[in-house]
Amino acid sequence: MNKRDFLRTSAAFLLPAAGIVSRPASAATTAPALIRVGVRGGVDEEIWEVVTKVARERGLNVKPVVLSGSVSPNEGVHNGDLEANSFQHQPYLRDQNQQRGYQLVSAGDTYISPIAFYSRKFKRLADLPAGARIGIPNDPSNQTRALVVLRDQGLLDLRAGFDPFTGTASLADVTALRQKVELVEVASVVLARSLDDLAAAAIVNSFAYQAGLIATRDGIAVEKRERNPYVNIIAIRARDKEAPWTRQLVAAYQSEPVRQFIQQKYQGSVIPAF
């Protein structure tokens, strides 16, 4: 599928006036004639071009719907204007379900965009001297990811019982610093530009990529892929969890052509999670 063929949409897409009617609950197990998947532009849009081709070869008609601005892919799935979406990780979906009353679930994993620590001056976090300033994101989700990496690297301890699958962590949850370093909270969008002023910084993958940094190549510490709640997912309505088309959709994504595309296209900045 060419990008020109993608349906570029606005908020009006999700309104009843657009003429899109939700299917009744009794139709949940019936494969739709067209499976509309809400995605964001960029990485997800590019990957779903390949998924669409694989799905078509397997008899499944998939239409990626590129959403922009304030249009919510989760609202679209909740309302039945979309069959699925692919843009988020489980903690984000959990928060959306709690805040908005959605009943959306993960159908399967897609990829991880790993957060990593980068440095212009040091090759390992263990090499950081006393007093070194380490930049970490100031938003709850990405700060949690950074703190977990530091915990896994042995730089600090987090409060007993903390589980990234069920909650977030902040500086208040750091119970011990095993290296005499200073953790500095900085907005994610600024961290890549601040790297020269810090001993090291945890940079979200999208901003790192824009700065020419690739986690698996340039990172001095990278978050683990195993048992990682921040793996991106395909989200669907809970009632569609066991539908045959859902399994077919996930299988099309978790196919060898898609794996090879991700590995060759993104060279380690995006990593298949299947």
UniProtKB/TrEMBL annotation:
<protein>
    <recommendedName>
        <fullName>Lipoprotein</fullName>
    </recommendedName>
</protein>
<dbReference type="InterPro" id="IPR004872">
    <property type="entry name" value="Lipoprotein_NlpA"/>
</dbReference>
<keyword id="KW-0564">Palmitate</keyword>
<keyword id="KW-0472">Membrane</keyword>
<keyword id="KW-0449">Lipoprotein</keyword>
<comment type="similarity">
    <text>Belongs to the nlpA lipoprotein family.</text>
</comment>
<feature type="signal peptide">
    <location>
        <begin position="1"/>
        <end position="27"/>
    </location>
</feature>
<keyword id="KW-0732">Signal</keyword>
<dbReference type="Pfam" id="PF03180">
    <property type="entry name" value="Lipoprotein_9"/>
</dbReference>
